[in-house]
Specification:
By secondary structure, the chain is an alpha+beta fold. It has 4 helices and 10 strands, in the order αββββββββββααα. A hairpin with a 4-residue loop joins β6 and β7. The longest helix is centred in the last third of the chain and has 11 residues.
């Protein structure tokens, strides 16, 4: 579309004082409406905890399709299952081929179901402290990985395989930086279902 406008302007059919349309952003920071902080480290596997208040908006960091939704907090310290640690959670597969995962949510909109197409910035959850985050500072656990076999509970990949902070740094200042290349290279190096690291 921009090339069409530029061609028309070159032909003198469009006033040069009319600005050309800018491309819409591809990526957005996943927490909106609240102040937040995050670190460039995570306890024992690659992810980022975005510390904020309960009830802030968790939004789609890019366009894509909702992959998995967990509306039931099954975590207890008695069983301490890794698959349950995230509490309420949503994952999506971006149009860039990357899986984005957010957990410890306090609520998930009723329309957010597997197969739902979302646009960058669409609301997909509310931040909280469900799962093993009970009693801690509310936060969004944000993970970046690749899609894994459908219907398989490969939770250690879903929770994060690549540190998100370089991309979060870019997105918070409005810069489009895609993790797709880094995710693809990492998956090729360690395989679709790598050995579980951390807990």
């Amino acid at each position: 579309m921009r090339k069409i406008f530029a061609a028309i302007a070159t032909l003198g059919l469009l006033s040069s004082t009319i600005p050309l349309a800018a491309a819409a952003p591809t990526y957005a920071f996943p927490v909106t409406g609240c102040k937040y902080t995050y670190a460039k480290a995570h306890h024992n596997y690659p992810a980022t905890d975005i510390l904020t208040k309960i009830g802030c908006s968790f939004v789609a960091p890019t366009s894509g399709v909702i992959d998995e939704v967990n509306r039931v907090d099954r975590f207890t310290w008695k069983t301490n299952k890794g698959a349950d640690r995230g509490g309420l959670s949503v994952s999506m597969i971006g149009d860039d081929g990357v899986r984005y995962y957010g957990s410890h949510l306090s609520a998930i909109p009723a329309n957010v179901i597997p197969g739902l197409r979302v646009a960058t910035g669409d609301l997909i959850g509310k931040t909280g402290n469900s799962g093993d985050a009970k009693g801690t500072t509310p936060h969004l656990h944000f993970g970046i990985s690749w899609p894994t076999l459908s219907g398989k509970n490969i939770w250690w990949v879903r929770r994060g395989e690549l540190y998100p902070w370089p991309f979060l740094d870019a997105w918070k200042i409005g810069k489009d930086l895609s993790p797709a290349g880094s995710v693809g290279r990492l998956e090729k190096k360690i395989g679709e279902i790598p050995k579980q690291v951390g807990y």
